[in-house]
Specification:
Layout lengths: L1 H18 L2 E10 L2 E6 L2 E4 L4 E6 L7 E2 L19 E4 L4 E6 L9 E6 L6 H6 L4 H20 L5 H4 L5 H9 L1
The chain binds copper (II) ion (CU).
Copper (II) ion binds next to loops.
């Protein structure tokens, strides 16, 4: 009986690992940290994980920005006002915007596994001023995390959404 229990647990854990983790990114109209933004703005996940985008109103959507995806990766475009789930099968950086509020700086980054895959290409893109300012901060956070790791980049932790970083945040 005990042995059966152990194997059941192992199988459950394997099933969980295969399914991948999920992170929620909220699309916020008027939040604690400001208006018209994704929360969190930066998410760091692993290949096989997924992100669930959840709008707080009919105003928001999520759409990838061309040339800010890993080569060959499929982008997405959600129906505005609807929740949307994206599964990530390819490593690299994915940049996206809310089509309604791009010029207000409503943009975000998702890092899947290794950001070095397309970091330079993605950072090179230019945007409306407010979106540019947000991306500048997010790319700086990713660069710091690549070079020095989470503990050394407290500014980056504020915008991170991965479970590991949430734990790191609590320790601070
Ligand atoms: Cu929006």
């Amino acid at each position: 009986m005990a042995r059966l229990g152990v194997w059941t647990l192992v199988l459950l854990l394997l099933a969980q690992a295969a399914r991948g983790g999920e992170i929620t990114v909220r699309m916020v109209t008027d939040g604690e940290r400001g208006r018209f933004r994704f929360e969190p703005q930066l998410v760091w996940i692993q290949v096989g994980d997924r992100v669930r985008f959840v709008p707080d109103s009919h105003l928001h959507g999520t759409r990838t920005i061309p040339a800010m995806l890993p080569a060959g990766a499929a982008g997405w475009s959600s129906p505005v006002g609807e929740p949307h789930v994206v599964v990530f099968d390819q490593p690299g950086i994915y940049a996206y915007k809310c089509p309604s509020h791009y010029s207000l700086g409503m943009v975000g980054l998702i890092v899947v596994g290794d950001p070095a895959v397309n970091f330079d290409e993605a950072r090179r893109m230019r945007h409306p001023p407010k979106a540019q300012a947000v991306f500048a901060r997010l790319f700086a956070a990713v660069a710091c995390l690549m070079e020095r790791g989470g503990e050394a980049c407290p500014g980056a932790l504020e915008v991170m959404g991965s479970p590991d970083f949430r734990k790191a945040q609590k320790r601070q």
